[in-house]
Amino acid sequence: MFERFTKDARAVVQGAVEHAEEARAGTVEPEHLLLALLDRESSRASFALAALGVDEHRDAVRRELREVRRRAGLSQAETEALAGLGIDVSEIVARVEEAHGAGAMSVGDRKSGRRWSGHRSFSRGAKEVLEKALRVAVARRERHIGDEHILLALAVRPGVPAEVLADHGVTHESLTRVLGDGGGQACA
Questions:
Q1: What is the Cα–Cα distance from 130 to 143, expressed in whole angstroms?
Q2: Contacts with 103 (C-beta within 8 Å, 6 or more apart), sequence order
Q3: SS3 of 88, please?
Q4: pTM > 0.85: yes or no
Q5: What is the arithmetic mean of pLDDT over 84-111?
């Protein structure tokens, strides 16, 4: 499948691996793909993000993704659902960090201080995003998978990246408007 990826899409995949390494995560997650997309310049995805006003909010998006990691990967919707059951996730995180140190619940962090070396595998979620990017490109009748297809896949797939993007006005619909519909077919 990677032979169909454009240079920009390959750079996003490589950037996601680098973000996973920096976070000392055992696997590459969809959030790492979003972070790598935020790093890009002069690509179709970066153009779409800029057109939708994310340029002014890149740091806020990065902070929100860090906060999700701190909450053990729970999205805001999951946090609110637990609050409806009387479970205060913020209080739980505060107590765990008080007992075990800051970032104790962070997804993927390794406390040993050693860097994990070797091949970073992709989580099921990250693989689903890349497969969805292929389906998006096919639905748009495009031969190659670009970074814009990865962005569209992140926006349409339920999860933390889609939630964080939507909080900043980036939805599958808004991206389709900015990028054009590429054939008019839905890719959900």
A1: 15
A2: 70, 97, 109
A3: coil
A4: no
A5: 72
